[in-house]
Amino acid sequence: MLAAALKQIEDTSALLGEDYPDKKRFKKALAAVKTPQKVIKGKVNGYSAFRIQHNDARGPFKGGIRFHPNVSEDEVRALATLMSLKCAVAGIPYGGGKGGIIVDPSKLSPEKLKNLSREYAKFIAPHIGPWKDVPAPDVNTDGQTMAWMLEAYEKEVGVQSPATFTGKPLELGGSLGRTEATGQGGAFVLQIYARLKALKAENTTIAVQGYGNVGYWFAKIAAGIGFKVVAISDSVGGIYDAKGLDPDKVLAQKEGGVLKRNITNEELLELPVTVLVPAALENAINKDNMKKISAKVVFEMANGPTTAEADAYLFEKGIDVIPDILANSGGVTVSYFEWVQNLSGDSWTRERVNKELEKKITKAFTDIDRIKTEKRISYRKVANYIALKRIIDAMMLRGRV
């Protein structure tokens, strides 16, 4: 994963280098972007723990904390790097960060999980803060985890500081609209894309692989505005109906254990739909199945669901790929709104959150689409170009390189 993140930066460097006459200075900036500013690691209650802060030229570090047995330093470093790119392309004033503990939380009692969360917050306390580094939930962490961490952090620093963590419960300063934010942001991008490509919603078919929070909300919102969701899958398999599916009914059947799956995850990826939405695993679209993809556009709602080889092949075949750093940036954008609300002591309505999200993500996509048309390159290369340029420009303006 780290190699893939660094390759994205390298692949964009030739295009980006045209904008910088001082090649020596540009190379120094590029090298800096490939290297995190700070790596914090150690043991917390006997478990290996990390917080990696990638680049804060554009603002405080921002990124989730995951509890998972497969967490590694390289994975956390890659995710911190991608968060810098995501925040930059979304136009929000953050740099990237990421944290994690190598642990299987399902094997911990609630009390031990609470204690681990609190001890991790104490471990990273000297390195975080509302103007320094703002963590959030990620894999196997949630609002309750953030509540435990906030309490421990505030005891360490001796002041109330709700803006230090986002993804909190509403009662502790969380934001309305955060639960559905990633799916909602993706649906906004879909609307803009459909408008630019003259796609009628009722004739636009969608297949969603992965029915966790992101996949569910994307499907629900897309169906609610008239798009036709025809396939949905989870880790076990999927359901396909050419006439269309009701995302809420599918969820109820899944949770009730009565969902009648009739396709595999592999078969879902190969359906002749308008929009394919990989919302589950990394590398879902790869060299083994890329030639079988028949969708007109791929919306990456998961992180890194398309390998570099598959991405190049799909571009060559005229299949658009809306990259993860844009498609799923709704979550971090609404986390930014939560931070803004906490800093100002304000509380926004859900309507205001969604209006501001639509405004941010619409501008991000239209900026990318304009350059894509001008330079005739992929959406991913344009997104990386914009993100890296914004980060490097900020570093140069600050005199770091």
From TrEMBL:
Pfam families: ELFV_dehydrog, ELFV_dehydrog_N
Binding-site residues, substrate: 62, 86, 335
SUPFAM superfamilies: Aminoacid dehydrogenase-like, N-terminal domain (SSF53223), NAD(P)-binding Rossmann-fold domains (SSF51735)
Keyword Oxidoreductase: yes
Organism (species): Candidatus Woesebacteria bacterium GW2011_GWB1_45_5
Protein name: Glutamate dehydrogenase
One of the protein's GO biological processes: L-glutamate catabolic process
UniProt keyword list: NAD, Nucleotide-binding, Oxidoreductase
List of residues binding NAD(+): 182, 213
PROSITE patterns for the chain: GLFV_DEHYDROGENASE
Family: Belongs to the Glu/Leu/Phe/Val dehydrogenases family.
Annotated site, Important for catalysis, chain positions: 138
GO MF annotations, alphabetized: glutamate dehydrogenase (NAD+) activity; nucleotide binding
Gene3D superfamilies referenced in this protein's UniProt entry, alphabetically: Leucine Dehydrogenase, chain A, domain 1, NAD(P)-binding Rossmann-like Domain
